[in-house]
Specification:
four-stranded mixed sheet, alpha/beta, 8 strands, Double Stranded RNA Binding Domain, Arc Repressor Mutant, subunit A, 2 domains
């Protein structure tokens, strides 16, 4: 039976709990938001991957994840190169895959993400899938903002989401770029993001 090895890492923005199972990351969750959400995602992931236990421990994969997360937060990394295994419904996994198409320094709205996922009018369903993302930062759900320009909710909390967006630039507009589905994050738009 599989075992998930987990370790908490301290980052510039707070603690994350990172878990690996059978050579792949299965979760990387901010501990700065809702603790019950973290526990739900860990329990659901353990059940879906057939893990008989979730144990604190050491893992070279978690060590590498920590290095890459720290590099990202320091502005020295824009793409993660880590083996991941996603455990969710087919729809959730599809949405999470589409999220990986949103490049560093870019953002989209829930409605546009629904279009990108082939689910026109499905922004609520897409929002639920985004909220269930088990790999915060690595699968960039922080790059999804509200149509109004507000940053919206985030499992790690609004402050962490704002800081992540600020590290990549600041949202000027979330109108779709023709043919792209997301906009460039530009440096001078805090009022639009926070308003």
């Amino acid at each position: 039976m599989a075992v998930i090895v987990t370790r908490d890492i301290e980052t510039l923005l707070g603690k994350m709990r990172v878990g690996a199972c059978e050579g792949a990351l299965v979760f990387a969750l901010w501990l700065t938001g809702e603790p019950e959400r973290v526990e739900r995602i860990i329990a659901r992931t353990a059940g879906r991957c057939g893990a008989g236990a979730v144990l604190q421990g050491n893992s070279s994969l978690i060590d590498e994840a920590e290095v890459q997360i720290m590099e990202y937060l320091a502005g020295r990394r824009t793409i993660f190169e880590l083996p991941i295994r996603l455990h969710g419904t087919d729809f959730q996994r599809h949405v999470w895959h589409v999220l990986t198409d949103i490049n560093y320094g870019c953002a989209t709205t829930y409605g546009m993400l629904a279009l990108m996922a082939g689910c026109e009018g499905g922004s609520r369903a897409v929002g639920s899938a985004v909220g269930a993302n088990p790999l915060h930062v690595i699968i960039p759900c922080h790059r999804v903002v509200e149509k109004s320009g507000r940053i919206g909710g985030y499992a790690g909390g609004g402050t962490v989401k704002f800081e992540l967006l600020a590290r990549e630039g600041k949202v000027v507009s979330v109108n779709a770029v023709p043919g792209r589905g997301f906009t460039r994050l530009i440096a001078d738009a805090i009022p639009k993001v926070m308003g």
